[in-house]
Amino acid sequence: METVCAIELRNITKRFGSVVANDGINLALNRGEILSLLGENGSGKTTLMNMLAGIYFPDEGEILVEGKPVSIRSPKDSFQYGIGMIHQHYKLVDVFTAAENIVLGLDEGGRLDIKAANAKVKEICDRYGFDIDPTQKIYDMSVSQKQTVEIVKVLYRGADILILDEPTAVLTPQETEKLFTVLRNMKADGKAIVIITHKLHEVMALSDKVAVLRKGKYIGTVKTSETNPQALTDMMVGHSVTLNIDRPKYDAPVPRLTLKGITCYDGEGVKRLDNVSFTALGGEILGIAGIAGSGQRELLEAIAGLHPVAEGSIQFTPEGKPASELVGKTPMQIKKAGVAMAFVPEDRLGMGLVGSMGMTDNMMLRSWRKGKGIFVNRKDPNELAMQVWKELEVVTPSTDFPVRRMSGGNVQKVLVGREIATAPSVLMTAYAVRGLDINTSYTIYNLLTKEKMQGSAVIYVGEDLDVLLELCDRILVLCGGKVSGIVDGRTTTKEEVGLLMTRVGGKEKAAHE
C-alpha cells in the first residue's frame, strides 16, 4: 500500500516574547500511521500541535495538508482540513448529554434533530469500538468516558487527522488498553494519529514512528521497531540518562503515622474509605496502589485534615515527642501540632497553586504567616523560587511569570519543589510525576528517596506499577476503599499487586505490619 502524506510541517517557528517555543521544525505524518511526539516538558510539543489545531498561528514556515499549503487561523479552519485535537483538559458542558456536547456549536441547518445525532454518534461508536451511551449526562461519566466523548466529537466533525495530548495521563491500565484498541481500529481505517505522551512503554506498544523534540528543536523521527526506551530518552535529553531508581535502605525506620480503622464518606453519603489501618514509617517510601477512585485521594485528604473522618484515629509521632491525634483538627492545627506535612494533590492548579501568580508568590503561599507585621517577607520565597527554578530546571522566562501559562510538567515541578523544600516529617504526594517527562520524573524519585533517607515518612500515590515496584519499600493496595494487602516492594511482583487492585481481602503479606 502506498503511503499518503496527510500533513507536513516545514520550518515551523513560534515565539512567545523572547522564548522560542518551536524553532524551524520539519515533520511529516502519513495516513494509516500512529506517530508519537516525545520531548521533555516545555520542549514545544503542545505548542506545535496547537498550531495544527488553529489555536496558535506560526511566525514562520508553512503547513501542508495532502500536499497543499494551507492557512490555519482558527479551530474552525482546522476542522475544515479534517484535523481534530483532543486536549489534556476536556472542554465539555457537564449538564448536557454526550450527543448534545458532540453537536454543540455545529451548524446543522434548521432545528437540531437529537434523534439523528444520537444515531450518528452510535454508528461512530460501533465502527471503532467506543463504549458510550449518547444519552448519558457528562456529570455521570468517568474520566475515560469524557475522553471518549471528546474523541467522538472530532470524528463527528469529519476529522481524519487526530491529535491526542497526554491521552492516558488519568486512565487506568485497563482503560488505556481499551483506548489503544480504538486507536488501532482508527489507524486501520486510514486515519492519521499523533499522540503526545511521556510514557515510553506506551510509545513502544502503540506507535509506528516516534518524533523527538528537544528545547523547541526537531531532533529526528525514528521507526518504533528500530529503537528502544533508552535510545529515545537519550534523544530527548541530549545525553545518556540512567533509567534506574536507587532504593537505599534506611537503618532503623520508626513509626511516624499510625492509622486505625479510618472510615470516610463523601458528600453523598457514599463510603469512600472502609476501616483502613496501616503504619507509615519514617525512613521508608510507602506506595499506595489501586485503580483510580479506590479511595487514594480521600486517604491523603483525611490525613491532611481536608476530608472529614467518620470513624477511626490517626496518630502522628514526631521525633522524640509523644504521639498526637490528628482526627478533628483543621489543616492549620495539624501544622501547629508540629506535623510538617507536604501534600502534592492530583489537581495541580485547582488545589495546589494559584494560576495567575508567579513562582515566587506561589512559594509565599506556604510561608506568608511567617511575615512580621503588615509586610510579608518576599525574600525567602524568592530564594526558594530561584532554587526550585535552577534545581528542577523549570522552563519559564522568570519567577514572576504566571504558572498557568507554563507547560503542565513545569507547573508540577513548581508544586513538588515547594512542598519538598519545607523538609516535612511526613511527605504525601498524589501522582507527583503525572505528565512529567522521564528525566524530571527521575529527579523527583531521587528527591523523594533523599527525603526518606533523612527520616521522613514518604507516602507516594502512583499509577505506574513499574515505578511503585522500583521506588517503594512497601506497597499498600486499596480496592473499593478497603486495604486489600500490604506487600514488600522489593519482593512482590506486578501480577501480585495487579490482583490485589481488583479484589478485596487478598492474603496480606505485611513487611512491617
Structure description:
The protein is of the alpha/beta class and 513 residues long. It folds into three domains: 5-237, P-loop containing nucleotide triphosphate hydrolases (Rossmann fold, 3-Layer(aba) Sandwich), CATH 3.40.50; 244-340 and 423-513, Rossmann fold, CATH 3.40.50; 357-422, no CATH class. The protein contains 17 helices and 20 strands. The protein has helices at residues 45-52, 75-80, 98-103, 114-128, 143-156, 173-188, 200-206, 229-237, 296-303, 331-336, 348-352, 359-367, 379-391, 408-420, 438-453, 465-471, 494-502, and strands at residues 5-16, 19-30, 33-38, 60-65, 68-70, 83-86, 161-165, 192-196, 209-214, 217-223, 254-265, 271-282, 284-289, 311-316, 324-325, 341-344, 426-430, 457-461, 474-479, 482-488. The strands form four sheets. It has a six-stranded mixed beta sheet with strand order 6-7-8-3-9-10, with helices on both faces. It has a six-stranded mixed beta sheet with strand order 16-17-18-13-19-20, sandwiched between helices. Strand 1 and strand 2 form a beta hairpin. Helix 12 (359-367) crosses helix 13 and helix 13 packs across helix 14. The radius of gyration is 24 Å and the shape is globular. Keywords: ATP-binding, Cell membrane, Membrane, Nucleotide-binding, Repeat, Translocase, Transport. Pfam families: ABC_tran (PF00005). One of its GO terms (molecular function) is ATP binding.
